[in-house]
Every structure is written in C-alpha cells, then in structure tokens.
C-alpha cells in the first residue's frame, strides 16, 4: 500500500510542506532526507487475517483490527502498530481518533521520550493500544538514530532469551492435531482453556506430544475450588503455569488459589499498567506484560524491573500483531521468565520481516531500532 494512503496526523499540521516533501520522496530508490526538525506522524488501518479462527473462552474471531503507524524525524522513519482484539475495547475508529488528536509537532527533540510519552498518555485515558503504537514507533525511530537495537541499548543479551510458546486454541481434534504439527519447531505449547471440553483438548495434545504446556484460562473458570482442581490436574499433565484462571474481579479468590496451587498463577486480563504490579504482588505469582496493555515498551521495561525486584515472575505476551509489534516486545525478552510471542505467525498477512526465529526462540535482529523492515510490496 502506498504511504500516501497513510493518514497524516494533526502532528503534521503545521509541517505540511516538509511532510509533503517526505511523502513525495517515498517510493524513490534514493530517499531524500527531509530535515523537518519535528516529529511527523502517519497512520493507516491494516486488518490482520488470522490463519485459524481464534477461539477463546469468551469470543471467537478470524481477523484482528490493527492500525499501522509511522513516526518520522529528519527523514528517518520509525514503525509502530496498534492491535485491537475486540475484548479490549479499542477499535480502528477509537485509535485513529486518538492519533488524530495528538500534536507531536511541539516536540523538536525525539530523545525527550519521557516528555513525549507523558504527553501522549495525558491526552485521554485508556487508549492503551493507540498509545503503544506511538511508543513502539518512537523506540524504532530512536534506535535507528542511535544505530542500535533496544536490547543492546538496555544492556541485555539475546543469549538469555527463552523459547517462546505457541498457542493452541480449542478446536476440533483434527484441527488441534494440525496445529500441533504446524508447531513442531516450538518447544513450549500454550493451551487456551476455560471453555467446555478443555480437558479433552489437553488430552488430545498429550496424545501427540510431551512438550511442556502453559495454560491460559482467559478468566474462564468461575470458582476457586474448580480452578484449584484444574491446577492439580494440569500439574500432572506437565503444565508449568496457569494464566488468568479466574475472572479479573475475583482478587480474594485468586489470592487463595495462589496459596494453594501447585502451579504459579499469572495475571493477564487483570493486569494493565505499572501501578498494577504492586497491587497484585500478593494476589498473583507473576504478570503477563503485553505492549498493547502497557502502552508500549517504555512502561513495559519499568514493569519488568519492578516485578522482578518484588520477586514476581514475568511473562511477555502479545496480541495478534505483525512482526513490528512482536519485534518490539522481543527487545525485552532477555529480561523475562516466559515468552509468548507468536502473534505474528498466527496471521497470514504479516507486513514486516527481519525478526529471527531460531531454536524455538524469537530473537530480535542485531539491527538498529526494532530490526524489522516492511516487506516489499506492502509499503
Ligand atoms: Mg492471556
């Protein structure tokens, strides 16, 4: 798709001339550097097509709405995205409305990340995926200006990265077998439970493979006693932790479950922003950080540091996203205990390339920024 189809955010407002110059340079083999001295924001909707229907405890879908973002400064472009699974309450409409309301032209120094992101966060409450799209694009941009990937800027090393899990959602036994076959290169499987027949799903998987399992109940178990029974059963089945077993409002019941459970209990739907880390330290054993919840990498990094300092497990998850969002999360993955970064392989129309998959691990490329580039023809 042509960059001219990107919507110029109001951040481009007073910079019409320089923005148009950068737009006209797009697609040329030799791209002109436009010294605008300001941040220029562009964005466009991009629907993600899922390879298999995504069947969760409370919903099923075959596409995920997504908005692709570009943030340009002096001819260097950073990429970001907002992915909006419907249950999170954001949409293409809400994200484009939020992005249109931003005025980033007020920032002449892109390195003032604290100020820029504090401004973005202050414009309206919630809108976490929309905010993440700016944060991710800004990280890509700054990494490119500095000439380094973010894991190196943070002093991390890719040797510390754990294998990622691959999600198997509930389906017919034939489709489940097919998914297990497709996932042979993954060393850990993640099972979506909390739906009728979820024990049968685990039995079907166990007939095919003895790889370790993570379980995500997506709030689908409604009593602490049943959840505990399931945790014991899953321990016997080679499960290593359980994510969001009970509805997010059931904090007392979850704290009780955590005391009794033979498996670590991880917060996902209950956990959103940085203050939740401290709020949940005696309720959950760990947190699932996702950039679309955390408003991006800047806060996600702080979450990971804080949670580790409190002795909590840290898991790094994702939505269905292109390799742009996954590459952003992968920069943090040397810091975490468990990695669940398969969102890009669940879609059939990834727009980016450059992310490395090796020995069951998702590894960011040793290239500036997020280390990904747009696939030719999908500009
Ligand atoms: Mg989850």
Structural summary, described in words:
By secondary structure, the protein is α/β, with parallel strands linked by helices. The chain is 33% helix and 21% strand. The protein has two domains: 3-147, Enolase-like, N-terminal domain (Enolase-like, domain 1), CATH 3.30.390; 152-374, Enolase-like C-terminal domain (TIM Barrel). The protein has helices at residues 16-25, 92-100, 113-122, 128-146, 150-153, 173-182, 198-208, 224-236, 251-260, 275-279, 291-294, 297-309, 323-330, and strands at 7-8, 40-45, 48-55, 60-64, 66-73, 76-83, 165-168, 188-192, 213-216, 239-243, 265-267, 286-289, 313-316, 338-339, 352-353, 356-358, 361-363, 373-374. α6 crosses α7 and α8 runs parallel beside α9. It is globular and about 60 Å long. The chain starts with 6 loop residues before the first strand and ends in a 5-residue tail after the last strand. The protein binds magnesium ion. The site of magnesium ion (MG) has 6 residues, from loops.
């Amino acid at each position: 798709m042509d960059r001219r189809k990107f919507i110029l955010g109001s951040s481009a407002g007073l910079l019409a001339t320089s923005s148009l110059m950068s737009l006209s340079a797009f697609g040329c083999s030799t791209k002109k550097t436009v010294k605008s001295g300001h941040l220029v924001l562009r964005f466009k909707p991009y629907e993600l097509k899922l390879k298999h229907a995504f069947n969760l405890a409370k919903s099923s879908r075959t596409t995920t709405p997504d908005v692709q973002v570009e943030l340009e400064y002096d001819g260097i472009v950073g990429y970001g995205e907002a992915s909006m699974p419907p249950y999170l309450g954001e949409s293409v409409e809400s994200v484009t409305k939020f992005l249109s309301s931003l005025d980033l032209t007020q920032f002449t120094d892109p390195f003032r990340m604290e100020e820029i992101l504090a401004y973005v966060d202050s414009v309206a409450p919630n809108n976490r995926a929309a905010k993440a799209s700016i944060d991710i694009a800004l990280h890509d941009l700054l990494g490119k200006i500095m000439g380094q990937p973010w894991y190196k800027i943070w002093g991390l090393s890719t040797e510390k990265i754990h294998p990622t899990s691959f999600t198997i959602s509930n389906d017919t036994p034939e489709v489940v077998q097919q998914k297990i076959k497709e996932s042979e290169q993954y060393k850990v499987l993640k099972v979506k439970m909390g739906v009728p027949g979820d024990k049968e799903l685990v039995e079907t998987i166990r007939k095919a493979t003895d790889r370790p399992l993570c379980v995500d109940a997506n709030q689908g178990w409604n009593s602490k006693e049943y959840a505990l029974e399931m945790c014991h059963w899953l321990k016997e089945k080679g499960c290593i932790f359980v994510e969001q077993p009970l509805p997010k409002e059931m904090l007392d019941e979850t704290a009780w479950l955590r005391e009794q459970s033979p498996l670590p209990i991880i917060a996902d739907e209950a956990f959103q922003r940085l203050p939740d880390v401290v709020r949940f330290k005696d309720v959950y054993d760990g947190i699932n950080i996702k950039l679309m919840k955390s408003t991006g990498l800047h806060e996600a990094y702080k979450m990971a540091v804080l949670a580790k300092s409190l002795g909590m497990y840290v898991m790094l998850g994702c939505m269905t996203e292109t390799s742009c969002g996954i590459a952003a999360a992968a920069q943090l993955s040397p810091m975490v205990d468990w990695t669940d970064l398969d969102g890009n392989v669940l879609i059939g129309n990834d727009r980016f390339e450059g992310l490395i998959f090796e020995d069951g691990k998702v590894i960011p490329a040793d290239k500036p920024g997020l280390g990904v580039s747009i696939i030719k023809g999908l500009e």
